């Protein structure tokens, strides 16, 4: 049960070269509600399913703005995500106060990767039990990075993490070649379609459980930034309705085949 006590701390390797505390933290990410991120030549988009612990509770926030040019989506322990997001906010603020400029996305992601990896080097600490998708824009364009509890970070064209995220990744892989040329709204719709693939049969996307975050470049000119903004409630109604219409059209054309796809 206890892996021969090799899981008592995060600084001891098992004979197979594994750190079980890191694997447990990764399992916490898999238990979180799914979040999806994807990028085009002009925008980076995050979409997420929000959960409520019970009928009388509010829905848990999944998207957070870090700075005007960057935001993140979380899957896993929200308390750990709060610690990391506050650290990222302080890094961005320090960059602006010191250099009077926005912090490059890669440098910001690298800093939280280093912070998380330290917890696998020092006795008495544990890995952060949260996965992050970080979307932002800098002088090189829009970016999407994935952060894992081990401290590993990598840039992605599109990514999904959390419960049942494999279904979303399958959709993203099939349509990845379409994303670079998508506009803002079309990219959001692709994200919602990927999110919809992860839902169990009796669930659907609603104004209450869906969040959308967008950052990018305005169509008018590359120097006009579309700062990171989280859209909730009525703001996502039009996007959800357009995706629902796509599903209805597919159901009419395919008959029972659509139900089988959802059950998978």
Automatic annotation (TrEMBL):
<keyword id="KW-0539">Nucleus</keyword>
<comment type="subunit">
    <text>The 26S proteasome consists of a 20S proteasome core and two 19S regulatory subunits.</text>
</comment>
<keyword id="KW-0963">Cytoplasm</keyword>
<feature type="region of interest" description="Disordered">
    <location>
        <begin position="243"/>
        <end position="264"/>
    </location>
</feature>
<comment type="similarity">
    <text>Belongs to the peptidase T1A family.</text>
</comment>
<protein>
    <recommendedName>
        <fullName>Proteasome subunit alpha type</fullName>
    </recommendedName>
</protein>
<dbReference type="Pfam" id="PF10584">
    <property type="entry name" value="Proteasome_A_N"/>
</dbReference>
<dbReference type="InterPro" id="IPR035144">
    <property type="entry name" value="Proteasome_alpha1"/>
</dbReference>
<feature type="domain" description="Proteasome alpha-type subunits">
    <location>
        <begin position="6"/>
        <end position="28"/>
    </location>
</feature>
<dbReference type="Pfam" id="PF00227">
    <property type="entry name" value="Proteasome"/>
</dbReference>
<dbReference type="InterPro" id="IPR029055">
    <property type="entry name" value="Ntn_hydrolases_N"/>
</dbReference>
<dbReference type="InterPro" id="IPR000426">
    <property type="entry name" value="Proteasome_asu_N"/>
</dbReference>
<feature type="compositionally biased region" description="Acidic residues">
    <location>
        <begin position="245"/>
        <end position="264"/>
    </location>
</feature>
<dbReference type="InterPro" id="IPR023332">
    <property type="entry name" value="Proteasome_alpha-type"/>
</dbReference>
<dbReference type="InterPro" id="IPR050115">
    <property type="entry name" value="Proteasome_alpha"/>
</dbReference>
<keyword id="KW-0647">Proteasome</keyword>
<dbReference type="InterPro" id="IPR001353">
    <property type="entry name" value="Proteasome_sua/b"/>
</dbReference>
């Amino acid at each position: 049960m206890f892996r021969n006590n090799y899981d008592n701390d995060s600084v001891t390797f098992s004979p197979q070269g594994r750190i079980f505390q890191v694997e447990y933290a990764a399992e916490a990410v898999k238990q979180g509600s799914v979040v999806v991120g994807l990028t085009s030549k002009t925008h980076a988009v995050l979409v997420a399913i929000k959960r409520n612990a019970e009928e009388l509770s509010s829905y848990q926030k999944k998207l957070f703005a870090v700075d005007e040019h960057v935001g993140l989506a979380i899957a896993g322990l929200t308390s750990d995500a709060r610690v990391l997001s506050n650290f990222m906010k302080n890094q961005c603020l320090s960059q602006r106060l010191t250099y009077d400029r926005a912090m490059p996305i890669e440098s910001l992601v690298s800093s939280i990767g280093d912070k998380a990896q330290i917890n696998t080097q020092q006795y008495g600490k544990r890995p952060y039990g949260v996965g992050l998708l970080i979307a932002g824009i800098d002088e090189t364009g829009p970016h999407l990075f994935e952060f894992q509890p081990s401290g590993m970070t990598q840039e992605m064209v599109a990514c999904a993490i959390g419960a049942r995220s494999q279904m979303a990744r399958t959709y993203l892989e099939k349509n990845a070649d379409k994303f670079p040329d998508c506009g803002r709204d079309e990219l959001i719709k692709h994200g919602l379609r990927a999110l919809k693939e992860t839902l169990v049969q009796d669930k659907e996307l609603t104004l209450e459980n869906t969040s959308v975050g967008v950052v990018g470049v305005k169509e008018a000119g590359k120097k006009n930034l579309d700062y990171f903004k989280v859209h909730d409630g009525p703001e996502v109604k039009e996007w959800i309705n357009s995706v629902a219409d796509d599903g209805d059209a597919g159901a009419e054309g395919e008959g029972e085949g659509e139900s089988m796809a959802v059950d998978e």
